[in-house]
Amino acid sequence: MTSEFDAPAKINLCLHVLGRRADGYHDLCMLMQKVSLADRISIALRDEPGVEVVCPGVPLAQGEQNIAGRAALAVLAAAGSNRGARIHVDKQIPVAAGLGGGSSDAATVLVGLNRMLGGPLSFDGLLGAGARLGADVPFFVYGRSAWAAGIGDHLRPAGPLPAVWYVLVNPGFAVSTAWVYGNLRLTSPVDVAKLPEFFDSPQDLAALLHNDLEQVTIGRYPQIAAIKEQLVALGALGALMSGSGPTVFGLFDDEALADAACATLKRRSQWRVFKVRPLEDFSPSSRPTC
Ligand SMILES: C[C@@](CO)(OP(=O)(O)O)[C@H](O)COP(=O)(O)OP(=O)(O)OC[C@H]1O[C@@H](n2ccc(N)nc2=O)[C@H](O)[C@@H]1O
Ligand SMILES: Nc1ncnc2c1ncn2[C@@H]1O[C@H](COP(=O)(O)OP(=O)(O)O)[C@@H](O)[C@H]1O
């Protein structure tokens, strides 16, 4: 049997770094949301042990080097299964882009393969297995928009967020998350208690936009600041780099303006440009194909 799943991208509506931990990771406060740009993943169980991962057209590791392969091995081990899996990833999310594509692929394989094997892992077990794969993986297991604390793995639900359109602009080069955190200069941390919890309008949400990692990535790649300026000039209520970058999103309250901004940016540049909607409540859906 083969099952198919969507693995959506995320954006960080805010990302505050609160401090550096003894293990080198950073404590964060983030508001995270999934969006409608997604990789398409199919998972097939096979009788031989081991995991094969193929991502046609994208130079990503196969098998256990790929984070989706490590996720599959975790579920097979939890099930005590001697079987293996073949995972096909139709990569739509730009790689090393600040959009969490690898983390989403991993979470989707955790949840999807767990379901295919009769649920050896509980929801908490899936969150724990996700945290062992990467700091952002639990968010993608979680299902809905969330405030993330700790290294990104302590999650609580966000209140309803306004219906908006985002225009994602990816300038086409990769940025290493480890490099960005490694070059971060810590500033005095935000008072988390003062961050707003409720957003009645797109303008309220635009007022939240903030990313402490921009100083590092924009310092090295000033074109990211130029993308932000262009999005605002084209009618975005605000624009922000997502995660460690380099992708920027513009927040629009008007779909026609978002469409026009996409068309203009595609005409003007070689950037990858996507209009997406927020996914308010998303859990990987299974669609058996045979
Ligand atoms: C910046 C964020 C924002 O959502 O996303 P991306 O830009 O990667 O999508 C995340 O914090 C990225 O999470 P993730 O990509 O899962 O991180 P990991 O694989 O666990 O770690 C990659 C590298 O980032 C550093 N790291 C990660 C998370 C964190 N809270 N502090 C860190 O210092 C680690 O030291 C590690 O070297
Ligand atoms: N399935 C996968 N999809 C994307 N990247 C992967 C995958 N498996 C391993 N990787 C590695 O993870 C790194 C981070 O990729 P990605 O998750 O796209 O970045 P980001 O978290 O910045 O959005 C890449 O450099 C890539 O080599």
TrEMBL record:
This protein's pathway: Isoprenoid biosynthesis; isopentenyl diphosphate biosynthesis via DXP pathway; isopentenyl diphosphate from 1-deoxy-D-xylulose 5-phosphate: step 3/6
Location of the GHMP kinase C-terminal domain: 204-266
Keyword Coiled coil applies: no
Ranges of residues in domain GHMP kinase N-terminal: 66-144
GO molecular function annotations of the record: 4-(cytidine 5'-diphospho)-2-C-methyl-D-erythritol kinase activity
Amino-acid positions noted as binding ATP in the UniProt annotation, renumbered to this chain: 94-104
Pfam families given in the database record: GHMP_kinases_C (PF08544), GHMP_kinases_N (PF00288)
Active site positions, chain numbering: 10, 136
SUPFAM superfamilies: GHMP Kinase, C-terminal domain, Ribosomal protein S5 domain 2-like
Transmembrane intervals: none
Enzyme type, top EC level: transferase
Catalysed reaction equations from the record: 4-CDP-2-C-methyl-D-erythritol + ATP = 4-CDP-2-C-methyl-D-erythritol 2-phosphate + ADP + H(+)
Sorted UniProt keywords: ATP-binding, Isoprene biosynthesis, Kinase, Nucleotide-binding, Transferase
Top-rank taxon, per record: Bacteria
EC number of this enzyme: 2.7.1.148
Function per UniProt: Catalyzes the phosphorylation of the position 2 hydroxy group of 4-diphosphocytidyl-2C-methyl-D-erythritol.
Listed NCBIfam families: ispE, PRK14608.1
Family: Belongs to the GHMP kinase family. IspE subfamily.
UniProt protein name: 4-diphosphocytidyl-2-C-methyl-D-erythritol kinase
Organism listed in the record: Geoalkalibacter halelectricus
